[in-house]
Amino acid sequence: MATPPVPGPGMPGAFTGPQGQAGREVNTASLCRIGQETVQDIVSRTMEIFQLLRNMQLPNGVSYHTATHQDRQGKLQEHLRQLSVLFRKLRLVYDKCNENCAGLDPIAMEQVANPLIHPGLLVGEHPQLIPYVEDEITKHEDHSLGNQLHLASEERREIVEVNKKLKQKNQQLKQIMDQLRNLIWDINAMMAMRN
Fold first, then answer.
1. Which is nearest to 82 in space by CA: 42, 119, 136?
2. For residues 101 and 28, is the Cβ–Cβ distance under 8 A?
3. CA-to-CA distance for 115 and 118, rounded, in angstroms?
4. Are the C-beta atoms of residues 22 and 7 closer than 8 Å to each other?
């Protein structure tokens, strides 16, 4: 699926990456990669901003150098400006991806083709998808996975029940131990009073 070309360097909404400078078509996967890199840049800039803020001294009566303060404040303003630019770039990428994907129909995961080449593949009703036709081996594997999942859920249920019973028994044992402790305490008190 072809996407419309990205605006050139002199036009508004131009990307600053190599794809935007070349003025050629950019597919959605490339846009997603650009968006991912932009998010990584935003995170690193934000970390740098927090590092600068952590190193800045508050004006709490301590003497500080005006030049150092102005330098740090200038760096902070520059980082904030660059962060603003990165967010605008991310918005452009997001809007472009949404525009490119607007005509696509959402599909269920069951309709997505198997990435492996298989001799039993047929062309389905979606021209961009090749549905996977199951053979006996994959049906057997799916059935065995279903059985394993069912057995695992039963085993988990049994473990939960056993844990409940153990907690009840532990509570009963604790009550018996408390009663025995009180009984021994009373017997010791009576013996002490007799002597």
1. 42
2. yes
3. 9
4. no
**pLDDT tens for each residue of 23-55:** 456 788 888 899 999 999 999 999 999 988 887
d(CA 162, CA 154): 12
Beta bridge partners of 25: 5
The enclosing H or E element of 156 equals helix 136-194
> How far apart are alpha carbons 99 and 44 in whole angstroms?
28
Which residues are paired to 5 by β-bridges?
A: 25
Global pTM? 0.42
Three-state secondary-structure class, residue 5? strand
Considering only CA atoms, which of 35, 29, 33 is closest in space to residue 101? 29
Number of Cβ atoms within 10 Å of the Cβ of 3: 16
